[in-house]
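Quick start: what a row looks like.
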Amino acid sequence: MRRFLMDKLVAWKNTAHHKPLLLEGARQVGKTWLAREFGRMQYDNVAYVSLFDNPAMANVFAGNLSADRLIPALSLESDTRITPGNTLIVLDEVQEIPRAMTALKMFNETAPQYDVLATGSALGIAMHPGSAFPVGKVNRLKLYPMTFLEFLYACQQDSSAELLRSQDFALIDVMHERLMTWLRYFMYTGGMPEAVSTFADTFPNVDFNEIRQVQTSLVEDYRDDFSKHTDSQPRPVVSTLRLNQVWDSLPAQLARENSKFLYGAVREGGRGKDFEIAIQWLVDSSLALRVKRVSTPLNPLAAYEDPNAFKLYCLDVGLLGAMSGLNARTLLDEDSLFREFKGALTEQYVCQQLTAQHGQVPYYWSAENSSGELDFLYEQDGHVIPVEVKAGRHKQAKSLIYAQKKHGYPIAYRYSATRHSDNGVIKDMPLYMAGIV
């Protein structure tokens, strides 16, 4: 598989005096595969050590954290001779042994000659009070589910992927229907590597029920994590029940006409204090994307954050479809897939693409006393870029047109199921270009 984050890993390796690297992301998005593949391609050796359910390593990291003690132990555990510059040390699931995070600080300060890459999640690290995160001592990258372009490469549709990257819209328009077909495949399959592999390995004889089984299994694995992490804490800060209630509410929350997150839609009479910790848990674990509202759609967006309003998306469009019970037969209809749940899947897809492209979740804007709303906003080169998402081929976008006239954005995008056009004010883009332009 081709993951674009590989380029950033290579850049990290080639940066002089680089710090240890923490590769974060949700479970099953491909962190372990990417770390090992990076090591295989860029180093002579990979000293891979999994810290998951590893009592021997727990004992090692419980003691002195000097390089003279850790390097021989890691060499023995990985059965690999570790030499500076030629060996990548991979500490997989670093959150399982909190003291291993402290060791990253040691490597940065006293043994910078060793290249160390740790995989983990912000959630797992934060769940261990008393084990401080090594602020300023590590570099951090985040891996998200696969993008549409990565999906095309995985399915050996390299020519289509290269065409999209070229932005040759004269030719893209000719190939529009073919590209929309592949987008429908992606909207159903999503970007979780196991689901993508299942699709790619069997195409064109794809068993969509098998893909759905993979997705359902992933959703259940995440549920198991809820109880694992909450029940293992001496004084749980969030209950498994609350996590399941918020997680289960995502499809219904996004399918509402106004998809602003409502606590009362999780449970009748629900309030922020009941669910805010559960929401933060899901966000920290990268299972949910929190799109915050801004009161004014201007730069810098963070200065206009509204702490009381947000939308909550799933980490992956395929998993959201599985949680919603989306029928595979919708793939047969040209546009119905994009209109499902009042366009919720389409918005999820665009949000996911923008997040992966820019490395951070976008914002949204809604007017205080009217129905005006901009689906997404992000910053690029010091400018705010507004985005409107249309689930079908109808391109009416009053809010975007009004905001463009009022604020004079240098670029405004409207994504829909139609071909590309540009009237000099708003750039109309087919949905498959989200996260590419």
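That is the whole record. Residues 208-231 form the longest helix (24 residues). The chain has two domains: 5-142, 148-433.
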